[in-house]
Amino acid sequence: MLSGMRVCVPSAVALFGSLCHGCRSWARSLSFRSFSWSPRKISRWNSQDSIDLPPAENPRILITGGLGQLGVGLAEILRKQYGTENVILSDIKKPPPEVCRSGPFVYADVLDYKNLRELVVNNRITWLVHYSALLSVVGEANVALARKINITGLHNVLDLALESCLRLFVPSTIGAFGPSSPRDPAPDLCVQRPHTIYGVSKVHGELMGEYLHHKYGLDFRCLRYPGVISANTQPGGGTTDYAVQIFHDALSTGHHECYLRADTRLPMMHVGDCHRATVEFMQAPECQLSLRTYNIDAMSFTPEEVATEIRKHLPHLKVTYNPDSVRQTIADSWPVRFDDSNARRDWGWKSTYGLEELVSDMLSSIRDKRTNAGLPVS
């Protein structure tokens, strides 16, 4: 049996006998959705009421927004642990051929509750990783769409997790903090009040998940990611994306124009650490978790500091600075460092990549990709 997982046993006596204690309370109070409940349709997982435990089995995992920066890499790690067929990627975009070859992929629009529910029921999903979101800069350019995807989509996933007793992971972000938050370091619990729709939606998600956990027993888990740096995906509209683009530019043209000031310090993390933190957190027994939302930290640096480290490998790199007012204002409202002491204490989080290791790995990975694609390397 998976560590930290609870079990419920269907009952033929009561209508809600097949639901865990928290989900039964939620189902009785539900008035805004119309469900057809039956013991055959409800997962037997996630209850404290049973003494007759089913045999151990791997989780069945659905990842929304799977073609973004993190979904494919996380799926690869989870498939190695739990089996390829037990991890389903989903998105609204057409996947590249290599993603289709790597394992199950399905179309899923987080705004379509009925479709999501069918996916969960038909595939016997027990864990849901909700990556669908518009990031900070893209969200500011289209607030209405960001509100739909980041908030309405989140509510669909929360409702579905309650109905089906899922273990639900929803990432949060450095953007959940605002200019009135402590900046060096930012603790897990403090004033937040962000100034972007992305940040507002993430704070909303943190609080809704915590509320539903305390009121109904939802197994909600959330990590506040720093800027995540990966060689496997292109920048996707985030304020920290310069820290990905600078490596591509260093190896292609030898010149990078940065949209932040040279001294803008922000928390960052190698994608390998990000994936490992997510998996370890999802696997942690509930009894070890004192919080539902944790900061995770690895390093903090400025554009000039990462450029200096890159020049140890590519001395010719030239960086110019042309601050963009939108991105710079967002960055100036964010913390320069995370306090992740609670994650380290509760479930043993510890990063492995520092700035030196990150730069070496990014340059090596991107160089190999460009060489294999027949592209020139500066």
* Helix vs. strand class: alpha/beta
Largest sheet descriptor: 8 strands, parallel
**How many beta-strand elements?**
13
Average of pLDDT: 88
Query: How much strand content do the residues show?
Result: 5-15%
Count of helices? 13
Order of helices and strands: HEHEHEHEHHEEHEEHEEHEEHEHHH
Note the main attributes of this structure.
378 residues, alpha/beta, three-stranded mixed sheet, 13 helices, 13% strand, globular, disordered N terminus, L-threonine 3-dehydrogenase activity, L-threonine 3-dehydrogenase, mitochondrial
Describe this entry's structure for a reader.
The chain is α/β, with parallel strands linked by helices and 378 residues long. The chain is 40% helix and 13% strand. It is built from 13 helices and 13 strands. It has helices at residues 21-29, 71-82, 97-102, 113-122, 136-141, 143-164, 197-216, 242-252, 271-283, 303-311, 325-332, 341-347, 355-372, and strands at residues 61-64, 87-91, 105-107, 127-130, 167-169, 172-173, 219-225, 227-229, 255-258, 266-270, 293-295, 299-301, 318-321. The strands form 3 sheets. Strands 1, 2, 3, 4, 5, 6, 7 and 11 form an 8-stranded parallel beta sheet that branches. Strands 8-10-12 form a 3-stranded mixed beta sheet. α4 packs parallel to α6 (143-164) and α8 (242-252) packs parallel to α10 (303-311).
